[in-house]
Amino acid sequence: MRESYREQLDEILSDLVAMSERIATAVRRATRALLQVDRTEAEWVISSDEQIDQMRADIDARAFSLLALQAPVAGELRLLVATLRMVTEMERMGDLAAHVAKIARMRYPEPAVPEDLRGNFARMAEVAEAMVLGVGRALQEKDIDDAEAVQQRDDEMDDLRRSQFRLMLGDDWPHGVEAAVDVALLGRYYERIADHADAIARRLVYIVTGQLPEEDAVTSS
User: Fold this and answer.
1) Is 113 left (phi over 0), alpha (psi -120 to 50) or beta?
2) Which of 129, 40, 57, 133 is nearest to 91 (CA)?
3) What range(s) does the PhoU domain occupy (predicted)?
């Protein structure tokens, strides 16, 4: 009975890793849709969001079932509680990738990103995808070093976002209001993907060490 319980816990963790890989693919293909003006890629990402939502629902259901039926304690309880938070973060990352794809589709056949910001967005996408993949590796190995590496990348994402604002708010912005709105939204989507990955990395530290993330410790005090 207990062996089966442990197997179910391991399966949940494996499915979280698979979900992160699916999301990383969605981020990559959404960026391809955006920067290469590829409507087919946009449609793939938008349709795949339903599959990510279903993965979340399935993981949720199994985690709640184990909480209700197995009365987990210590590390097992931490894993299940953190899973319920992490899978929500992952679902939101999938939603954000779909939002990027929807803007790419809406502007098709014109590009949504001005030429002078393509490099910025390409790098944003690389950082976001690397953070999502890093989360998957950290979950698979329960590795705090990998989790901390994900958190460190968030600083670069913030720098990229600030550089966008400097361009948009400059007196010589040549692209008009519509492009500024698109850039502001798209930048926010990538930034939020990074934020969610950072939150998952902090949850992993909680799973391994039992130490609450700082803001949660403040909230619970």
Assistant:
1) beta
2) 57
3) 18-103, 122-203
Q: Tokens 């849709």 identify what position?
A: 33
Q: Are 45 and 104 in contact (CB under 8 A)?
A: no
pTM: 0.90
Provide CB contacts within 8 A for 60, sequence distance 6+.
84, 87
For residue 109, is the peptide bond before it cis, meaning its omega torsion is within 30 degrees of 0?
A: yes
pLDDT tens-digit profile of 28-86? 999 999 999 999 999 999 999 999 999 999 999 999 888 887 776 777 788 888 899 99
pLDDT of residue 4: 79
- Burial annotation 25-46 (CB, 10 A radius, 16+ → b, else e): bbbbbbbbbbbebbeebbebbb
The whole-number pLDDT of residue 79 equals 83
For the chain, first and last CA: distance in Å? Answer: 37
The whole-angstrom separation of Cα 193 and Cα 46 is 16
